[in-house]
Amino acid sequence: MTKPLEGIKIIDFTHVQAGPACTQLLAWFGADVIKVERPGSGDVTRNQLRDIPDADALYFTMLNSNKKSLTLDTKKPEGKEVLEKLIRESDVLVENFGPGALDRMGFSWERLNELNPKMIVASVKGFSDGHHYDDLKVYENVAQCAGGAASTTGFWDGPPTISAAALGDSNTGMHLAIGILTALLGRDKTGKGQKVAVSMQDSVLNLCRVKLRDQQRLERVGYLEEYPQYPHGEFGDVVPRGGNAGGGGQPGWVLKCKGWETDSNAYIYFTIQGHAWEPICKALGKTEWIDDPAYKTAEARQPHIFEIFKTIEAWLADKTKFEAVDILRKFDIPCAPVLTMKELANDPSLRASGTIVEVPHKTRGSYLTVGSPIKFSDMKPEVTASPLLGEHTDEVLAGLGYSKQEIFNLREVRAV
Ligand code: CAO
Fold first, then answer.
1. Distance, CA 116 to ligand 1 centroid (Å)?
2. Which of 47, 222, 263, 332 is the most exposed place for a label (fewest CB within 10 A)?
3. Cα–Cα distance, 13 to 178 (Å, whole number)
């Protein structure tokens, strides 16, 4: 099967999570992704949080599938020479070094553009160019704080809270992938490459769009009617943390199911979608609420929404989270069990769709990873193992035209 990105050659100068998540996605879709790593150590995640001695850590294997690994010391002149050759025949260079690192290496945007005017140079940084924090190095949780996610996540009586979802890292990588694909399409029209830059702060903020909506609503009317603080609590002048109310327009909450006393995930998320009120009442056996003026409209329900949730919890007390959802789905009520990583890893539907995949690896044995969340009618992205450090060095150098002797002579800059 021909994959849409076949023929696109990508120099993958990324590390940790934000950049690797982007290039992994492009590799799944057919791009030839060559990960350039420092000889001896490589991407720091190869060693981080190892669960098997002497085998690449899952942090690395789960973000670098379908790629090749080229070890090259790009600070030495001979290494730079190899990199320059690679740049001349590649379509995209992706990097997420700390601010200024690529320039210090001698590969500024101007230099890259001079070497290959058709090349797209894509970067992730913590903050956008020219931002007053643009000199900062940034990791996931820092970005969540800088992008507005932390101040709006958690409970109103607790501190700002970090989400487990990689809003700063993988999310930024996905934004970058969209930028790269757009620039590739642009190049088809203009024949020119361009610089694509995505900041982690901007990418987090993009996902917090509804919170910026709420800030403006709050400033105009002084309250936010779908937040738990309304109508009994107080509002200040900034969007408060809303616990499990979330950012949608539909009231909802995480509710206890049978077994919550011993199972910390025996919960469902229950949404009270406005027009689904009648089916909700029918599902709960509370048909008297359907026309009761104290319950009939969203406005009438909000002042005692937590009493309503308590009543639903009483209904849930003898049902597991799965039994509850099986009943509620028949009434078209938006809801889901709170699923653990263990449940997701073993979910037959996710296995069948290729969202959870088992990948054989040379030194680890098999490991689970998340496959492409994007499904196509004409292509099923296949996930192959992440490369060992320097696994493809000789192959890539030979592809650049180096002879066996020349490859041997380069041992100082390529040796693992
Ligand atoms: N050969 C020789 N040198 C290499 C090399 C190679 N193949 N690959 C990388 N290097 C060098 C770089 O040139 C740089 O050297 P200098 O600092 O001397 O110029 C160095 O290795 C990498 O620097 P760094 O600042 O990127 O690395 P760090 O571990 O200090 O910081 C991080 C890591 C993630 C905080 C920083 O890269 C960063 O802020 N990146 C941008 C934001 C980002 O993507 N963060 C998300 C990471 S995922 O949580």
1. 23
2. 222
3. 18
Q: How far, in Å, CA of 61 to CA of 63, rounded?
A: 6
Q: Name the burial class of residue 131, with classes exposed (0-12), middle (13-18) and buried (19+) by CB atoms within 10 angstroms of its CB.
A: middle
Q: How far is CA 216 from CA 5, 148, 251, in A?
A: 42, 14, 20
Contact at 8 Å (CB) between 255 and 268?
A: yes
- What confidence tens digit (pLDDT) does each residue in 118-166 have? 999 999 999 999 999 999 999 999 999 999 999 999 999 999 999 999 9
Measured distance CA(406)–CA(416) in Å, rounded: 17
43 has catalytic annotation: no
- 14 Cβ below 6 A of ligand 1: no
Helix (H) or strand (E) holding 367, with range, is strand 367-370
Which residues sit opposite 70 in a β-bridge? 36
Atom of ligand 1 nearest to the CA of 16: 48
Q: What pLDDT sits at residue 307? A: 96
**Cα-to-centroid distance, 95 and ligand 1 (Å):** 9
Is it the case that residue 250 has pLDDT exceeding 90? Answer: no
CB-CB contact of 363 with 56 (8 Å):
yes
194 near 123, Cβ under 8 Å?
Answer: no
Q: Is the preceding omega at residue 373 within 30 degrees of 0, hence cis?
A: no
User: From the CB of 255, is ligand 1 less than 6 Å away?
Assistant: no
Q: How confident is the model at residue 416 (pLDDT cuts 50, 70, 90)?
A: confident
Q: What is the mean pLDDT of residues 186-206?
A: 98
Whether residue 25 contacts residue 173, with contact meaning beta carbons closer than 8 Å, is answered with yes
Query: Which residues fall within 8 angstroms of residue 187, CB to CB, at 6 or more apart?
Result: 118, 120, 193, 194
In the chain, what are the helix, strand and coil shares in percent, each to the nearest 5? 40, 10, 45
What does each C-alpha distance from 79 to 72, 237, 321 come to in angstroms? 6, 55, 57
CA distances from 127 to 172, 209, 238 (A): 11, 17, 23
Phi, psi for residue 116 in degrees, rounded to 5:
-150, 90
Question: What is the reported pTM?
Answer: 0.97
Query: What pLDDT, on the 0 to 100 scale, is given for residue 397?
Result: 98
What's the order of all strands across the beta sheet hosting 267-271?
A: 252-256, 267-271, 335-337
Cβ contact 107:72 at 8 Å: no
